[in-house]
Design goal:
This protein has three domains: 47-98, no CATH class; 100-204, Serine Threonine Protein Phosphatase 5, Tetratricopeptide repeat (Alpha Horseshoe); 207-281, no CATH class. It is built from twelve helices and two strands. The protein has helices at residues 21-44, 48-60, 64-77, 82-97, 101-114, 121-143, 154-169, 176-203, 207-220, 227-240, 244-257, 262-273; strands at 8-9, 15-16. The protein has a two-stranded antiparallel sheet. The longest helix is centred in the C-terminal third of the chain and has 28 residues, at 176-203. It is elongated and about 80 Å long.
Length: 281
């Protein structure tokens, strides 16, 4: 015949379905209380090499927030150890990957100042450039949706300066090729923004200013994809200023060099629709 399990009553009058359960509950409770504290103690007792390796492991797992915490701990506890020196580079990279670009730039610059002769200092220049490049992308994308601002290209110029310094100082480094590619893209961003500003000026009636911007792109960014757009603004601006002959010369250059570009087609149509244009003031 089936018998229900023997139940025991503790001193507080609580009934347990077995004599061993209270001991098990106590053990689990103690384990639950001791677990996090013990883990924290282990983390706090890590040696510099262990702490650095743990942070690097978090980086490989793309746990950038946790990696930053461990690398900061490494700096705070063992700032004079060799692992802390290497950890500063890893910290700059972790900030960059976490999207904390200003902190990445500042950390990389601190490393450059503190360890100018370090064998890996070129990497510090590279990470600084990467972080500035990422800031530039965000800033330019936002600026292209807003009216022109004198400070819109500040982060782009900063990124250009940082990456240019890298390629000048370390022409044989493994980072040279990627840095050059990014420099070209930064020039394209600058030109694109100048066209944005020129078109905005043209629509706002600041025709002379628009023509100046277009000429600036033509002179300084002639090898960028924005040159056809610069010629288009220049042609329209000259036409608006009553300089039809100059405008037609620019249009002819546009048609000769970029016959299939949509900008050329749009400019040709603009001329057709504005046979007689009252000069802008």
């Amino acid at each position: 015949m089936y018998r229900s399990p023997r139940r025991t009553r503790d001193r507080a009058g609580r009934i347990w379905p077995g004599a061993m359960v209270p001991g098990l509950v106590l053990a689990l409770a103690l384990a639950g209380c001791a677990g996090p504290a013990a883990d924290g103690a282990r983390s706090g007792e890590l040696s510099p090499p262990q702490l650095y390796r743990k942070a690097r492991a978090e980086l490989r797992q793309r746990n950038y927030g946790r990696a930053i915490e461990l690398l900061q701990e490494l700096q705070n506890r063992f700032g004079d150890q060799p692992e802390a020196e290497a950890g500063r580079l890893s910290l700059a990279y972790a900030y960059y990957k976490a999207g904390e670009h200003r902190q990445a730039i500042d950390t990389a610059e601190a490393f450059i100042r503190r360890h100018p002769q370090n064998a890996n200092v070129a990497y510090a220049y590279y990470v600084r450039g990467l972080a500035a490049y990422a800031r530039s992308k965000t800033d330019v994308e936002r600026a292209l949706a807003e009216p022109p601002s004198p400070d819109a290209l500040a982060s782009t110029r900063e990124a250009f300066r940082y990456l240019s310094e890298l390629v000048e100082r370390f022409p044989r480094s493994r980072y040279f090729s990627d840095a050059m590619t990014r420099i070209v893209k930064l020039r394209n961003r600058m030109a694109r923004y100048q066209i944005h500003a020129a078109e905005y000026d043209l629509e706002a009636g600041r025709t002379e200013r628009a023509v100046e911007r277009a000429r600036y792109v033509q002179k300084h960014f002639a090898r960028t994809p924005s040159l056809p757009a610069a010629l288009a603004v220049l042609a329209r601006g000259q036409l608006a200023l009553g300089r039809r002959r100059e405008a037609e010369e620019v249009l002819a250059a546009l048609e000769a060099n970029y016959p299939d570009d949509p900008v050329t087609t749009a400019t040709r149509e603009y001329f057709s629709n504005h046979r007689r244009v009252r000069p802008a003031r």
